[in-house]
Amino acid sequence: MMNIFKKKTSPKDVLRTSKREMAVATRGIEREIASLQLEEKKLVAEIKMTAKTGNEAATRILARQLVRLRQQITNLQGSRAQIRGVATHTQALYASTSISTGMKGATKAMVAMNKQMAPTKQAKVIKEFQKQSSQMDMTIEMMSEAIDETLDKDEAEEETEELTNQVLDEIGVDIASQVGFLKLIL
After folding, report:
1. How far is CA 99 from CA 18, 87, 93, 104, in A?
2. What averages of pLDDT result for each successive group of 10 residues across the chain (186 residues)?
3. CA count, 13 A, side-chain hemisphere, 74
4. Which pLDDT score, from 0 to 100, does residue 59 have?
5. Residue 6 carries which DSSP code?
6. Which of 3, 20, 121, 131 is the most exposed place for a label (fewest CB within 10 A)?
């Protein structure tokens, strides 16, 4: 019976579990290979000893055992290679899953962006921006001209008065006294 309250395992967790199981299996096979190789050395020493004693029948039986033992070692080495291959294949599948998940997210984002960026809407927005920008530029230019004219008039009047006073000072005429004289005449 399935547990409905159990949290769904992610691909990353499944990969981690699989890697752990493969590593345990590989270590078990490697231990078995090491023990068989140790047994092989003992068997070779035993074969040499029986051959020295001249017991040909026992030597043949031990030689058959050695051949079978070496076949077992070869088979275990093949199994170890297969397990490593499966682990590598599992890792590659996980990488492919990660890539496809990333592509799925990117596709969703692109669809959302394309919906927001309808070409006709964008063209209208750009035209309106250009129109408003032109109006703003004209308004700023008109205001700048008005300010410049106002400042220029005040500056021009001040400059004119300063130059007039300077020239009159040079020729020795005092404007204030003449203004007073003109008031008396009028």
Report:
1. 20, 19, 10, 9
2. 68 84 93 96 93 91 94 95 90 84 86 79 84 86 78 68 72 58 56
3. 6
4. 92
5. S
6. 3
> How crowded is residue 4: how many other Cβ atoms within 10 Å of its Cβ?
5
Which amino acid is residue 25, in one-letter code? A
CA distance 78 to 43: 22
CA separation, residue 73 to residues 24, 70, 134, 137 (Å): 18, 5, 86, 87
- How far apart CA 141 and CA 147 sit, in angstroms, is 10
CB atoms within 10 A of CB 89: 10
Q: Is 9 helix (H, G, I), strand (E, B) or coil?
A: coil
- Please say whether the beta carbons of 58 and 35 come within 8 A: no
Please tell me the predicted confidence (pLDDT) of residue 28.
94
Token pair of 63, please?
A: 């030689």
For residues 35 and 126, what is the distance between their CA atoms, to the nearest angstrom?
78
Tell me how crowded residue 62 is: count the other CB atoms within 10 A of its CB: 19
Structure token pair of residue 98:
């990660």
Which H or E run contains 4?
none
Q: Please, what is the end-to-end C-alpha distance for the chain in angstroms?
A: 123
Tokens of 47: 């074969």
